[in-house]
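Quick sanity check, Ribosomal protein S16:
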Amino acid sequence: MVLRIRLSRFGKRHDPFYNIVVSQARTARDSKPLEVLGTYDPIPQPPPPGSVSRRAFKEIKLDAARARYWIGVGAQPSDSAWRLLSMVGILEPRFRVAQIKQQVVAADNPLAAVDAARKTAEAAARKAKKSAAKATVPPPEQKA
């Protein structure tokens, strides 16, 4: 029985609202879950009056202890649930901006990627050569 932490959609058309749920992987999106962990409202809310920040926010309410429990027993979060759990601080972000930027730079400059691959191959060859030189065993004597 594979368990998934995923989003189950509620709300009207053009006004989504999601429950963060634990359910079996093969069940339908909006079927009855094993447990509801929290809610996620993707519609940006205006900041409360008197707050320091002027930015709108998307509301995430989550029972962090239960989410950690389900992850501990092997529930696999979906991509969107992984993103929400990383925002709350339960999981590490799956994609880091620096890694993506390095990949983009490598894709923009294919020669740099080739040079990097060549340098790593040369370093591995040097390392193998040194270890082979240290562990040199004299060849067996041949009978004539």
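Posting the structure with no commentary besides this: The radius of gyration is 26 Å.
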